[in-house]
Design a protein that fits this description.
- This protein has 1 helix and 8 strands, in the order H-E-E-E-E-E-E-E-E.
- The chain has 123 residues and is mainly beta.
- The chain has a single domain (29-121), classed as Immunoglobulin-like.
- The longest helix has 17 residues, at 9-25.
Length: 123
């Protein structure tokens, strides 16, 4: 079977457009500052992106230990004004010796996920 390269041109263009879209969303930087003071853990996720972009975030915190399981969720909107980092929220969790916690953060632009973060405490 002999396929000329020009027959693949539409596929190549489609792949290039997809790569360009991924590059645009990769300009979003997401990370978290995690601190500990005794049994209290504080997690502050941050986002940085080009000015003028509007994001929605969803954050869930699940804690599990001998006394059971609890989950909290929070979310909100954030407009980037410049490329400097902006905190999304702050969550504090008290962890006993046998407790474990997972913090999940999802950042969306419109309905498109542009960043996610998963933290397990203690790490």
């Amino acid at each position: 079977m002999d396929v000329s390269w020009w027959r693949c041109a539409p596929l190549i263009l489609l792949l290039a457009a997809g790569i360009d879209a991924m590059a645009a969303s990769s300009a979003v930087r997401l990370w978290a500052d995690v601190t500990r003071d005794g049994n209290r853990w504080t997690v502050v996720p941050h986002v940085a992106a080009d000015a003028g972009r509007v994001f929605r975030y969803e954050m869930s915190t699940s804690k599990e230990g001998p006394s059971g399981r609890s989950t909290t969720r929070q979310g909100g909107r954030l407009a980037s004004q410049d490329e400097s980092a902006r905190p999304l929220a702050t969550v504090q969790v008290e962890l006993g010796a046998q407790d474990h916690c997972e913090v999940l953060v999802l950042v969306l632009e419109g309905d498109v996920p542009v960043g996610d973060l998963s933290l397990k405490l203690p790490d």
